[in-house]
Amino acid sequence: MSRMNAHEIYVRFPMPELCGAALSRLKAACRFDPANEAHARMLGDALDAHCGWAEGAELKAVAARFPRTAPRGTSLNLDDVRLVCAAFGRMDARDVLETVVYALALTTNEPTADESATVADESAASQARGVSRLFYEDLWANAYIDAALLAFKADLAARAGGFPSASFGPGYYGMALTEMKKLDKMLNFGNIGAEVLGDGSMRPLKACAGLFFVLRGAADASPNACRDCAGDKANCAFCERPDSARDRRLFTESAHD
Question: N or C end of the chain: which has fewer CB within 10 A?
């Protein structure tokens, strides 16, 4: 595939350097109160789960930068790939310095976290190591991916002299999950040990892909979660619920108070 307009970047994240940011995100996700004795005990369990798990974890990313490339309406053309997302229509092309497409994948030596493991294997592992430990390992994986993505976006945006927008991607903001195959075509997920399954999801389980825009100013004009979602019933299971309009209103009011 032609890569005339793109600048590709491969990164292997040093896990120790992300540990502090990942811990902050895990604490926030669990809403731990350090003054609460039970919370302090649960945080200790989370830290115990981190031991050993992090030593066998590897987090890699690949990205392609497209300078002077911005969406036009609901479409975004990157070389010979056309991506469609309803939320693109909310962006002002004049504010966009460049587009960055990315993919991250986290792999570990733990066999229980892989979706290819059988139910019996997962059950046996859960009994041997404890459901609680598996729960915290899953939270750690999410926290590391979030921390890495934030750092990755900030670095790439700084290189372009701008600020990162919110992330867009298959399965949310009105972009069909099938668009994931186009991202794979552009980046070759295999370079970071990932692949796209038939339904558009990714393997390993802890992997993600999407894109963001580098903006001229710090003010982010991109959509803000469900409050500004431009999705529809075809792309969002939540939108398919009969009472979705009421539930979305209640959700956004509580989430943005």
Answer: C
Contacts of 66 (CB under 8 A, 6+ apart): 5, 6, 78, 79, 98, 99, 100, 101
Given the candidates 3.40.50.2300, 1.25.40.10, 3.40.710.10, 3.40.109.40, the CATH classification of the domain at 7-222 is 3.40.109.40
Among 231, 106, 92, 230, smallest CA distance to 165 is for 92
Q: H helices within 160-193, ranges in order?
A: 180-187
200/196 Cα distance (integer angstroms): 6
Q: How far is Cα 24 from Cα 215, in angstroms, rounded to an integer?
A: 27
The domains of the chain are located at 7-222, 224-257
- Split the chain (257 residues) into runs of 10 and give each run's mean pLDDT: 57 90 92 90 90 85 93 90 86 91 86 45 56 87 93 91 90 84 93 91 91 82 54 54 48 40
Q: Does residue 66 contact residue 6 with C-beta atoms inside 8 Å?
A: yes
Whole-Å CA distances, 34 to 2, 30, 71? 53, 12, 45
Q: Please give the DSSP secondary-structure letter assigned to residue 83.
A: E
With beta carbons less than 8 A apart as the criterion, state whether 143 and 25 touch.
yes
Give the pLDDT score at 222. Answer: 54
Please give the Cα distance from 90 to 223 (Å, whole number). Answer: 7
